[in-house]
Amino acid sequence: xxxxxxxxxxxxxxxxxxxxxxxxxxxxxxxxxxxxxxxxxxxxxxxxxxxxxxxxxxxxxxxxxxxxxxxxxxxxxxxxxxxxxxxxxxxxxxxxxxxxxxxxxxxxxxxxxxxxxxxxxxx
Length: 123
Fold this sequence. Notes:
Elements: E1 4-7, E2 10-13, E3 18-24, E4 32-39, E5 46-51, E6 58-60, E7 68-73, E8 78-83, E9 92-100, E10 112-113, E11 117-122
Parallel strand pairs: 2-11
Antiparallel strand pairs: 1-3, 3-8, 4-5, 4-9, 5-6, 7-8, 9-10, 9-11
């Protein structure tokens, strides 16, 4: 069982940066691949970035490449999403998710989810 708690969201202006954190409970965090997803009002939830258990295999969706970075610290049971050059279209609820094996772009492949943190980017 893994429990996930996101933090770090907020209201920022376009061009600003935020770092989201996802803290996981449990001693087996390092066995899980992690993903960040986001859902804007009226839209379906979409994959943002994924990272494997060791952190040496990451993937980001095209819309955030060059601006967002996913990383993890297994000693702290935490995965991060560094978001730079934020745009109004990045406004969404951001959620982290965990699954055994490698990361996946499909939300149905993840077993555990956090409650989400709101990111709002004003123009």
